[in-house]
Amino acid sequence: MKPKMQSAIERITLNDATFTGEVIEPTFVNFFYGKNGAGKSTIARSLCDNTGIEWKNGKSASDYDVLTYNTEFIDANFANYGNLAGVFTVCETNIEVPKKIEALQADKSAVAEEYKKKSVAAESKQNT
């Protein structure tokens, strides 16, 4: 059997929550799964915050695109699209666009209402 290809991360030392000095030596591709409380989120937080990470060959997190697919990523990048089941938007930018459109539509409605009031007032002054 071939040895596993090593990753750019030499080791991850967890010192968070219930894990003290727990060492993980990742390989090139890693997928962490387990029961609640097994440490998946702790590992993800370490990767995101670059805490407890020992990089190979003098490298650092700034030399790589470190990506974690965790709850924070899902909250920031996925949103339901209205009440349509199974339809959602992906990407932080795409999530913000409908929010901006909704806010602009509310502003437009407020301006239209103000215009209507002023038009009625102006018309009533013209008739007197």
Automatic annotation (TrEMBL):
Gene3D superfamilies: P-loop containing nucleotide triphosphate hydrolases
Segments passing through the bilayer: none
One Pfam family recorded for the sequence: AAA_13
SUPFAM superfamilies: P-loop containing nucleoside triphosphate hydrolases
Protein CR006 P-loop domain: residues covered: 23-125
Protein's name in the database: AAA family ATPase
